[in-house]
Amino acid sequence: MGGSDDDVRPDPRGPAYPEAWEADVVLRDGSTTHIRPIRPDDADALQAFHVAQSEQSIFLRFFAALERLPERDLARFTQVDHRDRVALVAVTQDDAIIGVARYDKVGPDEAEVAFNIADAHHGRGLGSVLLEHLAAAARERGIRRFVAEVLPQNGRMIAVFREAGFTLRQRLEDGVVQVAFDIDPTERSLAVMLGRERSAEARSVQGLLTARRVLLVAAADADPESLDARRAGRVLTSLLAGERRPPIGARTGAVQAPILGEPVDLHVVGSVPGADDPAVRRWDRLEDVPQEVELAVVALPAAQTVLAVRALGRIGVRAVVVLSGGYAEEGEAGLALHRALLRTAHAAGMRVIGPVSYGLISHTPAGLVNASLAEEPPPPGRIGLFCQSAATAVSILASVRRRGLGLAHLVSAGNRADVSGNDLMQFWQEDESTDVVALYLESIGNPRKFARVARRLARRKPVVVVTAGSTGHVVPPGHAVRATVASRRTLEEVVQRSGVVLVENTHQMLEAAQLFALQPLPPGRRAAVVASSGSLAALVAEAATTAGLSVDSAPVIVPEEAPQEVIDAAFTGVYGDDRVEVVIVVHVPTVGPRDDRVATAMARAAAGSGRTSVACLPGLHGAAEALTAPDPDGVLRTVPAYTTPEDAVLALGQAARYAAWRSAERGTAVHPAEMHTRQARRLVQRWIVEAGRPDRLDLDREQIAELLGCAGIALIPSEPVRTADEAVAAAERMGWPVALKTTVPTLRHRADLGGVRLDVHDAAELRADVRQVLELAAGHDTTPDRAPLEVQPMAPHGVACVIRTAEDPLYGPVLGFGLAGDTTDLLGDYAFAVPPLTDVDVADLVRAPRSAPRLFGYRGLPLLDVAAVEDVLARVGVLADDLPELLSVELNPVVVAEHGAYVLGAAVSVGPAAARTDGVRRALTS
Questions:
Q1: Element (H, E) at 131
Q2: C-alpha gyration radius of the chain
Q3: Fewest 10 Å CB contacts: which of 62, 497, 766, 882?
């Protein structure tokens, strides 16, 4: 049904409002705020912001005293075109402006920039984050350089520019500092941004894990039997019991001494069973709660939670745990509440844990914070645990207790609307109370960031990860995650290249975590096996070899009837052997109970030996007192116990691989010479505009050659031909010998089917080949308006490879490498990686396919120029990483010869760039 002109309403946000520029960000102090483009209806808020500024701030911004902004300036500042004139504002939950950043275009690719931060919010990092977002917006609009006029006494503003990592050019002119700098991201500016991101996110997590003033919010009229009321009651009981609970667990190396701190300061609003406890301060309304609460736990229906969070922001709460559901898992209406919850919380400066969270448990120097549904929290330990599903948290905690393990922290993110595993990993990087990190992930909202953060953390601490489902791309109801077309192998390779120990289930996750928590990293893979029988030793040795360990020495047999001196001598010999790096003990009596003499002797020998040790003894699992002994310094050391030998050697093999990764050279970021990505971006953007901005544009061969040339990649020329005469003429121009190829899709690159003829040396041979290939192609579908044949100069002989990249909505650019041919396609023998890459990543990628030995002299083949194909691969990776407009690239074939790598064919598709999950500006997932 059509509408009249009267039905058309102007957008109050202004023309062509760039909604994609809106973002929630974490600031230097760990709080959050909302950034968005300025709107015409911001005039009153901008005036209020201005009049609240000090005289000095106004003078530094406008070079003059200006008590109020004139109406003309208000209109000019708030009515912008979002292209040549852009302004971004940071706002509170009430839409009060606390920071402004703007640019005005003054040249073809140059804009004048200005900032103004509210006096009350200096020191929170608003200037730096606004600069990141303004520069990103400017680059979208073709701006490449910012200029500014700054008074010499405005050192704070100059520092914002310099500390952002840009290279400043300054000169003093008429008493004003003229500043100019290019805004294209540099290695230094990206490093600065990531460092700030890491610090801010870690501080925000630290705030919620160390909270000592907690507010529990429930409905005033809640049915005591309702799920929300029972959740609230359970959390209150947990918080009250936290400091009254005696130490839990046996005396082992898995559990730390309990910390007897001050009780948590508890506040309650609403009807909560147990709130009449004298340790609880009750309030009728949220507005009455003192402005000193750090953490809120909310058990309310979704719509009421959003309203409650708005009130919590006004009393200064820094984080909120949402126990209830009713959000994105309930469809579009719930998704709207999900977004409203995040927008409200972030604008008010709060992080959100949940919805449908199990809560958090944190052992801090000040004492235990148990704001969770757990009836019995684990004792303090050295493992940091993150999970999403509340139900999974129940089973994981039960397994932790059965194993006798301790935890430093547990955070259940539920539907992971905000606080994620990435945030916790940022915190755990510098947390001295955590030695091992374990994550159960039902979804990964930002794999690029996950890989980056996990790699940095894994260089310092083991990171054990299990992902839900067989594909790794399960999206449970309630999780807002972008779709992906990438395979499970993509996830596996991205995660493993980050040094993460990827396991199949939560059982394996805790098996690995307990080993890392209790034992030193394996110094190598040479294993000694101690068993109660020869047949058992043989089975264990085979399992160890399958797990990647090396069993070169004969097993040591300790019969079940062995006397004490034989047992002691066996372990003295094993741990005294310098060739032994890991020890596996499997002792299973066939008659009678477990022989604790074996456990005791092993624990004594292992403590302080430096050998990574595991045990499989009946009735023992996890951390057991029987396998605990003090080292020479008096510190308790425990050998982890496993139910089966297979579990033990699997964990040991995973630890050995991690130790090897951690000790290996990780390389440096690749920066190939003669890379002109800025020129490439301009070409692509021009082609997209000239084509009418289609969603996908397939480039022709001339465009492809020009684009690849910007990356320093030469595409061997070819000429399309239709007849034998045209083919011969093309060959004469190129020089003999040549290759003849069909362009029919089903026969392209198929020399085995006759679609490619190589080493054609003269006109007669070429004419015959043209006739035969055309006859062969006659029975296949052809591409309209495309010549059926191509003639190309012959490249040196070698091995044909394929290099691909595709822009994935979730991962961003996914780079793939494999050898060309049917076998590779049928078996999926490709390796994948997500840029940016190091030189070691590139080398690993080339060597990862099972068919890669053909590049290295396999069965008498010559050694090929692997460095040349690594160079091409690195260039494609950099190009794809820098150009999100690059939807897909396929270089096929890339012939790797004894000297050089030659790109004979290429297909490239481009399109308008979509925002990546891990871009060049800090932003929380919404």
A1: helix 126-140
A2: 32
A3: 62
For 353-407, the DSSP string reads E-SS--EEEEEETTEEEEEES-SSPPPEEEEEEEES-HHHHHHHHHHHHHHT--E
Left, alpha or beta for 821 (phi > 0: left; psi -120 to 50: alpha)? left
Mean pLDDT, rounded, for 475-502: 75
Q: Compute the distance between CA of residue 33 and CA of residue 24 in angstroms, rounded to an integer.
A: 6
Residue 273 clears pLDDT 90, i.e. is over it = no
d(CA 726, CA 38): 61
Most confident by average pLDDT, 364-378, 599-613, 778-792: 599-613
Q: In 10 A of CB 514, how many CB atoms?
A: 29
Measure the CA–CA gap between 923 and 386, rounded to whole angstroms: 21
Cβ 624 vs Cβ 603: under 8 Å: no
- Element (DSSP H or E) covering residue 132: helix 126-140
The sign of the torsion formed by the CA atoms of 917, 921, 925, 926 equals: negative
Query: 625 vs 25, 75, 431, 461, 910, CA distance in Å?
Result: 47, 74, 28, 25, 62
**Of the candidates 796, 802, 838, which has an alpha carbon nearest to the alpha carbon of residue 818?**
802
Q: Are strands 582-586 and 556-557 parallel, antiparallel or unpaired?
A: unpaired
User: In sequence order, what are the residues at sequence separation of 6 or more whose Cβ sits closer than 8 angstroms to the Cβ of residue 76?
Assistant: none
The pair of structure tokens assigned to 506 is 């939560």
Alpha helices in 791-833 (DSSP H): 822-827
CA dihedral 41, 923, 677, 845 (to 10 degrees): -160
- Residue entry with tokens 């490239």: 908
Q: Which amino acid is at 877?
A: G
Helix/strand/coil for 81: coil
Signed CA dihedral, 233, 238, 243, 245: sign only: positive
For 334-365, b where at least 16 C-beta lie within 10 A, e where not — what string? beebbbbbbbbbbbbbbbbbbbbbbbbbbbbe
Per-residue model confidence as pLDDT tens digits over 244-261: 554 555 678 888 766 666
How many residues would you count in the chain? 926
Neighbours of 523 (CB within 10 A): 15
The H or E element containing residue 174 is: none
Name the phi and psi angles at 538, rounded to 5.
-65, -40
The answer to whether 403 touches 621, Cβ cutoff 8 Å, is yes
| CB 394, CB 376: distance < 8 Å | no
Query: Residue 341 in contact with residue 306, Cβ under 8 Å?
Result: yes
* C-beta atoms surrounding 472 within 10 Å: 23
Helix (H) or strand (E) segment spanning residue 25: strand 23-26
Strand residues in 176-333 grouped as ranges (E): 176-182, 213-218, 265-269, 280-283, 295-299, 319-322
pLDDT digits (tens, 9 = 90+) for 494-532: 888 899 999 999 999 999 999 999 999 999 999 999 999
Sign of torsion over alpha carbons 261, 262, 266, 272: positive
Report the alpha-carbon distance of residue 752 to residue 906 in Å, rounded: 20
| Percent residues over pLDDT 70 in the chain | 95
Answer yes or no: are the C-beta atoms of 50 and 69 closer than 8 Å. yes
Predicted TM-score (pTM) above 0.90: no
